[in-house]
Amino acid sequence: MPQTKFLLDESEIPKHWYNVVADMPNPPTPPLGPDGQPIGPEALTPIFPMALIEQEVSAERWIPIPEPVREAMRLYRPSPLMRAHRLEAMLGTPAKIYYKYEGVSPAGSHKVNTAIPQAYYNQQAGIKRLSTETGAGQWGSAISFAGNMFGLEVRVFMVRVSYDQKPFRRSMMQTWGGKVFASPSMETQTGRDVLAKDPNNPGSLGMAISEAVEEAASREDTNYALGSVLNHVLLHQTIIGLEAKKQFEKAGDYPDMVFAPCGGGSNFGGVAFPFFADKAAGKNVRLVAVEPASCPTLTKGTYAYDFGDTAGLTPMMKMYTLGSNFMPPSIHAGGLRYHGDSPLVSQLYHEGLIEAVSVHQLATFEAGVTFARAEGIIPAPESNHAIRACMDEALRCKQTGEKKTLFFNLSGHGHFDMASYDKYFAGQLDDHSYPEELLQASLANLPKVD
Fold this sequence. Notes:
Blueprint lengths: L4 E2 L9 E3 L31 H8 L4 E3 L2 H7 L7 E3 L1 H7 L4 E6 L10 H13 L4 E6 L3 H12 L3 E7 H6 L1 H9 L3 E5 L5 H9 L7 H13 L4 E3 L6 H7 L1 H13 L5 E5 L4 H15 L5 E7 L4 H4 L1 E6 L8 E6 L21 H8 L4 E5 L1 H15 L5 H20 L4 E6 L7 H8 L10 H8 L7
Parallel strand pairs: 5-15, 6-7, 6-9, 7-8, 10-11, 10-15, 11-14
Antiparallel strand pairs: 1-4, 2-3, 4-5, 12-13
Helix pairs in contact: 1-10, 2-4, 3-15, 4-5, 5-7, 10-12, 11-12, 15-16
């Protein structure tokens, strides 16, 4: 019988993370302070431990993974590489389809890959509390789990619309000891100011980040933890692609195309960056970031300096952005709601080294249901974006007869997202392309940087 699972031994968990900066043709653009001038690492010390700041600015190709982090990851790593034989047959495609299944982590998604090292480094620095934000809830769950592992109190500002839509994500965070607040909240001045203007504000990731950063900056025992966007977060996630490359060797195969969902960029960077190393060395591999049409950061955003949060508390980063005031539609149930994108992913896209496509909400849920009925796993709505783009390519191969090898990151399971599937089955979800006039209004507020 043809093999379905390609597995690694625990001893094969990577001992180093891969830093894509080492293979980028141009150095990363620097973050800027409020005066529009580049900032140094010292500007980040109020909210991050020095070990993470050093990773944030490093250009070294390989960064060692501490042994306590590898030990903690043995609870769920290495994750399996799967060959989707049943999906291939259902689609009638000559293409081979593989996926890396990150839903095996305790929190059910890839976010644990950076939550564990962030909790470890903060604990080593003597920090007692972490404040953070979460949108769909995967990151909040992951950092609550990791904080519990390393004895840290975790406070999570959860985007209000997700707080209401996904109560069982809240339950997961609370099970691991996390304290969860609907954002905007009354816990911070940022939240109080927003609620004073609009008591029914549905919230946004940028707004929740503002609350979490404000709280971290106001207490010496508290640091901020971020689940995507920043360089060190994408660095930690490369464990996905590094394992996958070893597993493809066992399979005697190599992907022609790599697909991953893209909101802030950690999902995409984690799986695609290790393959970018091969691309930089001359390998012909296409790397495709897949985002929602209702939050089309790469495909419709502007490449400019912008704040990472709504209140302007973070440094300004050069990235594709929809404007830090961007408010995603509440009807959007598929996650990936962030207004900006990783500066590293943005720069690679701007330089034409990676690709990006946007997909509509109904098509992503259709793809998720098709995948579940073929492969058995119910995917997270975010993962459905990559599945949709991969299936579309497999169907193109059906028309052309090409026998491509396609690979996507199944970044998490959807067991706590069934309310979104319920809405899909009930016909209560719509396709929503973000209106051009609202996009331009948001972009009009970009900071003025020379």
